[in-house]
Write a structure and sequence with these properties.
- The protein is an alpha/beta fold and 281 residues long.
- It has one domain (9-280): 4-Layer Sandwich (Metallo-beta-lactamase, Chain A).
- The chain is built from six helices and 14 strands.
- The chain is globular, with a radius of gyration of 18 Å.
Length: 281
């Protein structure tokens, strides 16, 4: 591959929190969402509640988001219907630019039927059609399973891998993005399993689910990691930078970073807050 000297790759944190707010005092952190901006081409990792407003606050037009990859369909990660409704009405009512009339949504293959039912529940007037104004707006639901990959932008490849979540009963995915010699891995919600070690290898940035408190980490059970497990994952995977996200805030950032480093990980560790940016030029 010939690398472009003008390449701009940015990751913007739109939500670093969990499904509930006001558990503890502190800054507001919205539910999960990360925007990948590759030379102005936009991929959204998880589409949580109100994400289009957070995109606008960050200076982005949600109408230009061309791809959405959903790790799993728990509501704090996949509030997809309002986002689709906004995109649809945007094209019906407002002046739009070329490309805004389409959206590709990537999600686990076993979750598609459930979303189709939800969309029809919200739009019974569409008589069972997903795209009921096809001349104005079309979206596609792309079924994924572990091992799937696709070049969604020229030079940017999205890869999916299976992870353990919801007692192993919730069909959940992690994602690896590869572009011009750089790699970003988003675990989604995941317990520590071999698929993670395989797919985080030598990532430039690892965005890791850290939804479990220090001292309460486990491999089985529901399916979240704690900071010590995230650190071990980053250490064994030879990751350059580790972001700890999707945390409630019971442990202090300093304690979380210290726990992550017990594994021997010596790269960059950040306890993520909304608005945090990772950028390569």
């Amino acid at each position: 591959m010939v690398y472009s000297s003008s390449m701009s790759l940015k990751v913007l944190t739109l939500g670093s929190g969990v499904c509930a707010n006001k558990c503890l005092p502190g800054p507001r952190r919205y539910p999960p969402g990360f925007l990948i901006d590759y030379d102005g081409q936009l991929l959204l990792l998880d589409v949580s509640e109100g994400v289009r407003f957070r995109l606008e606050d960050a200076g982005y037009d949600y109408g230009k988001v061309a791809h959405v990859a959903i790790s799993h369909v728990h509501p704090d990660h996949a509030d997809l219907s309002p986002f689709l409704q906004a995109k649809l009405c945007r094209t019906l009512w407002c002046q739009t630019e070329e490309g805004m009339e389409k959206l590709d949504v990537y999600l686990n293959e076993t979750s598609i039927a459930g979303f189709e039912q939800t969309w029809q529940w919200r739009h019974p007037e569409a008589a069972g059609k997903l795209n009921h104004f096809p001349e104005k707006f079309n979206f596609t639901l792309q079924p994924l399973r572990g091992g799937w990959e696709k070049e969604i932008f020229k030079g940017l490849t999205l890869k999916a891998f299976g992870v353990y979540h919801g007692f192993g009963q919730h069909p959940a995915l992690g994602f690896r993005i590869e572009v011009e010699g750089k790699s970003i891995v988003y675990t989604g919600d995941a317990g520590l399993t071999e698929s993670l070690f395989t797919n985080v290898e030598k990532a430039d940035l690892l965005i890791a689910d850290c939804g479990t408190r220090i001292g309460q980490e486990y491999t089985g059970g529901y399916g979240h990691m704690g900071p010590g497990q995230c650190g071990m994952l980053a250490f064994r995977g030879q990751v350059k930078e580790l972001w700890l996200t999707h945390y409630v805030g019971f442990d202090t950032p300093a304690a979380m970073e210290a726990e992550a480093r017990k594994s021997g990980f010596s790269g960059i560790v950040k306890v993520v807050t909304d608005g945090l940016i990772w950028q390569q030029k």
